[in-house]
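re: that chain from earlier
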Amino acid sequence: MSRLGLIERWKSRLPVTARTPVITLGEGNTPLVRADRVAKKAGLPPGSVYLKLEGLNPTGSFKDRGMTLAISKAAEAGAAGVLCASTGNTSASAAAYAARAGLRCVVFLPKGKVAAGKLSQAVMHGAEIVEVSGNFDQALALATAAAKTKGFTLVNSTNPFRIEGQKTGAFEIVETLGRAPDNHFIPVGNAGNITAYWKGYKELGLSPKMFGWQAAGAAPIVTGRVVKNPSTVATAIRIGSPTSWKTALAARDESGGAIGAVTDAEILTAYAFLAREEGVFCEPASAAPVAGLFKLARAGKAPKGLTVCVLTGHGLKDPGITSRFKPKIRRVKAGGAIKL
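^ sequence. v structure.
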C-alpha cells in the first residue's frame, strides 16, 4: 500500500484542481515525539514538550512539504524546468521532486557553504549546479534573475505554493494532539516556515504563540538589519536577508510570540542533547528551537503549557558536524575479551 502524500491528504485545503498532476514522494505525516528529557532540562513538567521530526520526510527535511506542491503546480503550468537558490535542503528537495516530475532542475549554491549530505543529494538527483562566489542572498538574487528565462519556475519560498504546502505541518500537529500547542518553537532562516505554520494555524482558527530562533551570527530579524556576511555552524539558517521577513514579524506579533537568537555553542549543546538524551539526530539548525527553549529556561522564562519544537532536518544532512564530538572508543585485538 502506497503512502499518501500531503496533497492527497489535505487537498481540500490546498490550491489544487483535478488538472494538477500530483508529484509526490509520500511526504508529510511525520512523527510528533514526546520529549520528557527536554522538558525536564527546561524545568517543565513531563508531557509538556513534543518534537516534530521533519527530518523524516523523503529527502530528509521539511522542504518536501512545499516542494511537492510547487513542483506539481510547475508541471501543471507546463514548465520546462525549475530553479532555486539554496543553503542545501531546498536544492536537495527541488532536485528530487523535479526528477520525479521529469523536469530540468538548476540550483544556485553558495560555493563551499553547502553541507556534504545536501550537496550529494542534489548531485545524485541530476540537478545542474551553479556555484556562486558569495552567500545565499547573492545566490538567490542570481536565481531570481535567471527565473525570468522562459519556461522556468522559481521554487524558493518566494513561490506561494511552497508556503501552502508547508502550512500542512500545522494541520498535522493539531490532528495528532487534538488541539493546538500553546507554544510553537521553530528555526528561522529564510523565514518561510514560521510564516507557513502560522498560516496553517490561522486557517484552523487557532493561535499558538510563535517562537522563532535564528543563529546569533545570522540574526537579521532579531537585530533589525540585514547581515551581509552571515556566519553560523547551522548552515540551513545561514541567511542574512530573509525573503519572508515581514510575514515572520507578523507571525510573531499576531501570535504574541517572539523571535530570538542563540549562539553556535548553544545550538551544538542542544544538538548533542537531542541525540544523546532523546535519541533524535537532527541537523544543527533544527536544534535552534530547543536551544532557544533552554535559553529561556535559564533566564526563568520558559513558557508554560504545551510546546512543540519543529526539527526541520535530519542529522545526516550535515554529517561533518559530528567530528566536533569525540566518540568513546575502546580498541581490542580480535579474539580478545572486553569488560563492559
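The radius of gyration is 20 Å.
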